[in-house]
Amino acid sequence: MTGIIEEKTVRGLREVALLGFVTMALFFFIALITFSNEDAGWTHSGSMQSISNACGVVGAWVSDFVLSIFGLMAYLFPVMLLWHGYLIYTHEQWQRGKLILAIRWFGFVATIISGCAIFYLHILRLQVDLPGSTGGILGQEIGGTLLIILGNSGATLLFLAIFLAGITLFTGLSWIALLDVVGRYTLMAGHRVYQQSLSIYDAYRDYRIQSKLRVRKELTVNKKAAKGSKVNVSPA
Asked: How far apart, in whole angstroms, are the C-alpha atoms of residue 30 and residue 32?
């Protein structure tokens, strides 16, 4: 009986934790998408009475801070919060060892840093309200440094490799398996399109054959009718 009560209590705590992480993720996301440079924030001052951020003064400061540091990669933080809440809810957070959890967090940090650098190097402007560059201060410092050392191509290849490896470490996603799945479904889609094309072609060919047979039949009937009318006409 005590074990059942403890299990229900633990499950309830996991649900509360999941709800908390979902709430934080939504708050984070809403604060980011409603960011405005006119609001008072971490990088500049303004009137506290006219905050346009949907999450108020706190949302304005938080969004200004993370967008200034991480640029567009700040939008990955709500995803991280949701993923962390999911791991807690499914009890996977405790089933895995500390080393695995450390590797996951290392992958997340690697993804953030490399993503900031890639945004800084290749996405200069977007129709998005940002307090700084698309890669933030982090991308500007790291990307700018390696741009001088490795050049644009070398830095891009390095950051892209780190970005893909970071996603694999953080989520467990296998890019080879993903390519295999995409290739398999692409071949299936191509085969289905080919079969549909053959069916349409066969239907069109049958329609043409039937049309020709119908025309020939009508011509034959008309010829016979014309011959019959000539035979029935009496001479003057």
From this structure: 5
